User: Fold these one by one.
Assistant:
Number 1:
Amino acid sequence: MRRTSAHVLAAAGLAAGAVLTTALPAQAADDWIAVGGWSIGAHARDSQWTLKYPHSAQQAEGRGQVHWSNGNETTGYWTEVRAAANDTVRDGYCAVTQVSYQKKTGGKWTNQTRSSAVDCVDHDGKAYWGRFYKSRTPIRHVNFRVCLGGPDGSIPSTRQCGPWAW
C-alpha cells in the first residue's frame, strides 16, 4: 500500500445519493498553502487520538498540530496545521486524518473539511506526517479527527470516523 500527502489527493466527484464522502486536500480551495515548517508561534496545540472501529480493535491513529497568531473569534486567526495518520491493522482501509475549520466567505463563517494525511501502509507502526499548511485567510475553530477510508482520502461513511478532537 502507500502513504499519501494531501497535495496529491484527488477530489472525487460524487453521484447524487452516494454514501461516499471526500474531503478535499488541505490546499484544494485556496484556503491553504504548503510551507516548509512552522512560522507562526504565538499559540500551539497538539492532539493525538486513536480510532477503534469496530469497537473491538484499534484500526487507525491520528494526530493533529495547529499553530495560530493572535486574533479573535470575530476576525479569525492566521493559522498553520499539520497532521499525521497511522494505519494500524491489515483491514483494507487506510487511516485518513481530516481537519475541520471555519473560514470567512462573503462576511459569513463557513465550515470546511479537508483530508490532510493518509496512511495505507498496514500495521508498520509508523505514522505518516502530511505537509505543513499555512492559511491564506483568517481561520477559526480548527479540529482534527481520524477516519477509515480510501487512498484518495475518501471516507465510505462518517460512522467510520472518530469524534472531532479539538
Number 2:
Amino acid sequence: MKSKKSELIQFPPLRRDTDINVIEVLWEYLKMPEESQNIVLSVMKEMYDCKLEENKSPLELYQKLPTKNVMEFQNVIEKIMLDIIREACNMAGWVFWHKFIDGWSVNEMVNDQEGAEKFIVVLDALFDEYVEMSEQEIDDDNITS
C-alpha cells in the first residue's frame, strides 16, 4: 500500500496573481519523484552558479537531468522559454517599426506599452547604437576608398 505522502501533492501558498507558467512548472516539479526533484534543484543551482564561471556551459549541465522522470517538467520549461523568445522578438519588431517607420519617440512607445518600459528603452538604445555603428562603417569605407 502506498503511503499518503506519495499520493498527495501540496502546493505552497501562492499569490492569486501568480503567473500560470509558474504554477505549471511547480506542478510538474512536485509530480516528480523526490530523487529527481533533488537532481533538478542541484542542476539548476549549478546553472545559476555557472554564471560566475565561464568554463562551464549551462547546456552541458542541463543535459545531466534524468530524462525519464523530468520529461514533463522539461517540456513546460521549454514552452516557457519559447514564449519568452517569441515575446522578445515581437517586442523588438514592434519597437523597430514604431521607431524607424512611424518615427515614435521612446516616450511615445513607453506610453503605449507601459509594462515594457525597460525593454523598450534598452531596444531603443541598442537600435541607436546599431545605426551609429553602421554610419561609422560607412564613414570608414569612404575614408579608405
